[in-house]
Amino acid sequence: SFAVAVAHGLAKTDMCLAYNLTNKQEFIEALKNSNEKLAHTQKALKESEEKARREQMTANEATDRMQTLMQQLPSGIVIVDNNLKIIQANKKFIELLGEEAKAIDEVVPGLEGADLKSFLPPKVISMFQFTLTKDENIVGHDIHLDKQLLNVSVFSIRKHNIIGAVIRDMYVPEVRKEEVIGRIDEVITQ
Q1: 11, 84, 152, 180: least CB-packed within 10 angstroms?
Q2: pLDDT digits 0-9 by tens, 8-59
Q3: Which stretch of DSSP H or E encloses residue 177?
Q4: CA dist., res. 178 & res. 186, Å (int)
């Protein structure tokens, strides 16, 4: 029989029908398990992609709201990196800088990537550098610049990496009124 044929070298064990049926069944089971694992992995991947898509939409909405808010504020706002390159600036900040900055803004919206040092005098730049290196905020520092009185606050957003500033032109009527009210409140409180 088959065992005799194997003994004489006329057949190999993998030619046995029972052996092949067993191996085939094991192979089918292994394939089934592999397919189940693949289906589970695909489901997990799809769920992960859905979650990432929802988080991206939420982040985009938050960014849009923040940009809209920045543009509506009556103060100049600028955010820069650790090389003092502008990440983002609002229209009021660009207006404070003057005509040259407005012309650049038309080509490069928000002055993104521009060197802050080319727009502001050294005494203002030193405030930015101080906050970058010391990670200490500067709040409400008055600076006379040409015919402007600027109230500058510089603050850390990401330690030694990203900083922001709020700059108010103290001669603008709405800012002056707000500042006078604030300072009167301080005197009354004291």
Answers
A1: 180
A2: 666 666 666 666 667 777 778 888 888 889 989 999 999 999 988 888 888 7
A3: helix 173-189
A4: 12
The neighbour count for residue 145, using CB atoms within 10 Å, is 15
Give buried/exposed letters for 162-181 (b at 16+ CB in 10 A, else e): ebbbbbbbbebeebeeebee
Specify the 3-state DSSP secondary structure of 107.
helix
Contact between 131 and 163 under an 8 Å Cβ cutoff? The reply is yes
DSSP 72-99: HSSSEEEEEETT-BEEEE-HHHHHHH-H
**Which 3 state secondary structure label does DSSP give 187?**
helix
Nearest one of 162, 165, 112 to 143, comparing CA atoms: 165
Query: How is 122-149 classified by DSSP, letter by letter?
Result: HHHHHHHHHHHHH---EEEEEEEETTEE
Of 102, 139, 146, 142, nearest to 121 (Cα)?
A: 146
Q: Looking at residue 150, what DSSP letter applies?
A: E
Please give the full DSSP string across 2-44, using - where no structure is assigned. HHHHHHTTSS-GGG-HHHHHHHHHHHHHHHHHHHHHHHHHHHH
Backbone φ and ψ for 30, nearest 5 degrees, come out as -60, -40
Task: Give the whole-angstrom CA distance, residue 185 versus residue 189.
Answer: 6
